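Why do we care about 3D structure at all? Because function follows from shape, and shape follows, mostly, from sequence. That is the central idea of this module. The next example makes it concrete: a single protein chain, its amino acid sequence, and then its structure expressed as tokens.
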Amino acid sequence: MIDLGLARINRLLQNTPQAWKAIHVAGTNGKGSICAYLSAILHSTGASCGRFTSPHLIDRWDCINVNGNPVSETVFRDAEKLVKRRDQEDYVEATEFELLTATAFEIFNRQKVEFGVVEVGLGGKLDATNTLRQKTVTVIAKIGLDHQSFLGNTLEEIALQKAGIMRRGVPCVVDGSNPPAVLRVIEDHARDVGAEIHYPSTSELASVLSEEGYEPHQIQNLACARLAFHLARPDHDVSLARLSKAVRDAWWPGRLQMLDLGSITGRPQPVLLDGAHNTQSAEALAAFVQKHLRLQGDQAVTWILAASQGKDMGGILGLLLRPGDRVAAVRFGPVDGMPWVKPSDPSSILALAAQHGVEKAQQRDGSDDLRGTLNWASATAGGGPLVIAGSLYLVSDVLRLLRESKAV
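And the structure:
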């Protein structure tokens, strides 16, 4: 259930101290990467750092990270048990995400972290994470159209919801590559609130990191993280070499991740795994595929796709697919702790793929059979490129299946 508002979470957190300094990150795309980069930089400079992002990838507790490592199941369940008892005793009736947020904050308190890097779950103004009491820096990443039924139907309306994380006197880092109309909304709100806007420069990073294979959107996200770090710890500096190492060490799977699926399919070539689930992230994925996988531009790609209900798959497929591509569509499995998330029917994805030039003979309805679909795609692709995309929940299922296959 999604039910935005701060009344329940405030009651749930009234007995959880928040002595740590918070860095709050909102946006449609890039906010999770910024959190991963930022926590890695903080940890590399000796700061004790917690990170809370959503959704989880493999296990429900891996969305809570302390000093570079996901918390253990024991630590998670012990804090969750306390939070759920408070919820019941005080008749709060909190949502699943509110319970998860309170659990993360409880763990940060117990672990005595110095900084907490927190990703907004949905929107900003009314998101459960907006109960942070000691914000040091806020960050607004790239904003696009997503979750319109909750946030508004225009970029400007969505931007205003995201800008709701700002606080008076707290600096706000903003991705300057956002459209001018979005930036105007954010700047107007900053003036109303009394927050100072800071725009990161990418020129120095791009001159070094482009040669290391970083994509433009990754450099933009890293620039935001670096500036947020400097504002949070003005007495510390990070060289480009140290910055690059910290980012390489950051744990952030499912974003342009090259994956070895040999233990499942026997395929020796790596597979690209990416959670692109809206048109903005699909645009970045399409650019990467065009640059690195399609070679001269005519190389066919085999895709495995899934989507949550309500996503703009027509727009996404229009960016990703080319005539001659092959497409398999599957359903992702139930999402632990998020029962309201439902997968799109594979047949609807394939119907859209046909509209974008994918022939019927090059399609497969994988239904609920992810392993069989992976095997079909590997055989169909041969040694050619294979990409898995469309949903972070599909990413989760693939990573979970890979873990199980290696444990046998």
